Amino acid sequence: MEKDHIYMQAALEEANKATSRDEVPIGAVLINRKTGEIIAANGNRTREMNDPTAHAEILCIREACSNEQTQRIPGHDLYVTLEPCAMCTAAISFARINRVVFAAHDPKGGGVLHGGKFYDQPTCHHKPAIEHGIMADECGQILKDFFKTKR
Question: In the chain, what is the straight-line distance between the N-terminal and C-terminal CA atoms, in Å?
C-alpha cells in the first residue's frame, strides 16, 4: 500500500535522527487510522535519556497516551523500522494498538515473529494485526551500517 511506504519512510527518518544521536537507529511513527495523521514520531533514546525502556515504540506510545489522556489507544497503527522486542510488543498489546507494520526482521531480539512471540502466548490480551517487510532492505541497512562502525 502506498501509505505504508510513506509512513515507513517517516519511521526511517526517525531512525536516521537516532543515528545522529549515536543511538541504535530504530524509528517509529504512530498513526491515527481515522485521520491518517502522524500523532507521534520518535527514534531510540536509551542513551540520551539513560533509560533502557526509551525505545522508539515506547516513546511514541507514551506521547500518544499523554496527549490523548488515556492508557489505551485503539484505532492507531504503529510503523517501526525493526521488529519490536518483547518489551515493546507487550506495550503495544497493553495500549491496544490496532496494527503494527515493521520493516526488518530481528531474529535475535524480536518479540513478534521471533523469540517469545508475545502475541502467540495465551496470556496476551490483545493481538494487533501484523504486517512486515515493507522497506526491509533500507531499514535493515541502516542498522548494519551503524553496527559496522561500532565493531
Answer: 37
Q: Which residue shows C-alpha cell 531510540?
A: 44
Identify whether the C-beta of residue 80 lies closer than 8 Å to the C-beta of residue 110: no
The reported pTM is 0.96
22, 16 Cβ separation under 8 angstroms: no
List, by residue number, the catalytic residues.
57
The answer to whether 100 touches 80, Cβ cutoff 8 Å, is yes
CB atoms within 10 A of CB 9: 16
Task: Kindly report, residue by residue over 113-131, the tens digit of the pLDDT.
Answer: 999 999 999 999 999 999 9
Q: Nearest CA to 146 among 7, 9, 5, 26?
A: 26
